[in-house]
Amino acid sequence: MEVIDNTALRIVVPTGDVPSIKNHIERCEVLQSNTQHSELLVYWGINEMQRLARLYADIPSPIERDYKWPGLYKPFKHQRVTAAFLSMRDRAFCFNEAGTGKTSSVVWAADYLMQEKQIRRVLIICPLSIMYSAWQDDIFKTAMHRTAAVAHGDTKKRQKVIRGEYEFVVINYDGVGTVEDDIKASGFDLIVIDEANAYKNTSTKRWKTLSRLLTPSTRLWMLTGTPASQSPEDAFGLAKLICPGNVPKWKTTWKEQVMYQVSRFRWLPKVNARKLVYQALQPAIRFEKSQCLDLPSVTYQTRHVALTAQVARYYKLIKDQMLVETAGVQITAVNAAAKVSKLLQISGGAVYAEGNDIVEFDIGPRLDTLLEVLEETEHKVIVFVPFRHTIELVSKFLTSKGVTNEIISGDVTARNRADIISRFQKQTDPRVLVIQPQAASHGVTLTAADTVVFWSPVTSVETYLQCIARIDRVGQQNKMTVVHLQGSAIERQMYTMLRNKVDLHSQLVDLYKQELENE
Question: What pTM does this model have?
């Protein structure tokens, strides 16, 4: 296979395929032929290559010749390859690991298809936590010449965005069902599903809604870094949307192909299950972070977490109380630190009340977002939780979801701490460490993990950098990802300051005043 003069592709194919190829591709010439193989010269255009890609793998996309790769930064090699792969396929999987820049690859591929007049509108369905921070921000940075909007809020707000002329529309999973008819009537040529494991179960309302939205001409790209990570059975729902011919008609048949029963309620994967899942989930592309040699060693993500009504109410009560307490009074750094800490505690899920009683809040969205992060990586994870009373809450949630975890806090003895760290580094379990930053921010090697999650911001730049340094040190074999979970205004401001290495201790009074001024 060879591109000739940037205008034609020379390819050798089975001679029996030639009539079908010539029937679907006009600009095609047979150079030579025998009973087994024929050499063809095919015009190197997007339409011609897309048709060839339905028959053969690794057909080169003309995106490299025709596209200028707009944006604030130029794509890495793996992003160009990913965009080229997607541009050639109406339906496909992208299994690139978290932190490899899948969103930008998708935006470039979609923008190229818009340039080629193949599509007009794109609907991106993703978790609530990354609608703005990942998708809208990346569209603005990568394809700033395109229009984009987030369809979030009440039904009327969603309808207004969907019925508009925005070229990219971003919506969360559960918002789709409320405006299903509007989506059907709004001419979306391409649907992108991020963190596609949310659609692994064909019996859910979510899966059935998406299935109804798809027409034979609708393009669909599904993204996840961990396909069928929980069970080979999970591949069925994904394959049914992208490539239904790759799996049996019935889920029970698929389960029997990839699993065997050891007791009434227990099934285990068969020896060949991994191979069958791979074959079912095609066409697909995957880059692991270790393969992306030009990727920075550490990449950063922000996940926006919706505050529940309960948390928002108490957060406002505390702010109103602060306004009363500080009226006409000089604010000291000590007072500011205490008040900021109280706001962070409420945002994170638990706060000390009078008499050292602990009041826990409804933080379901934050817990669900943490689970999303864990599901998007196959490797171990460290979760830094600044407040001791919240650590137990997080650990209990992970345990309830079947995620093995251990706690490292000031209450854990040095001997037990060393044992936990040794098992984390050398054994399969625990998969997650829930750590109080001050208890393990110096001198500890945790390179078995390649992802750090900040449940809430810490109040020191040094502590922040040292937390990241637990995985970013000698012995680390993977590219690393740092994830910020944020829901309140104070968290957003503090993460910005930490990333910019602004000393928070010297800025606490200004930070506190700024928070009081925010509506």
Answer: 0.83
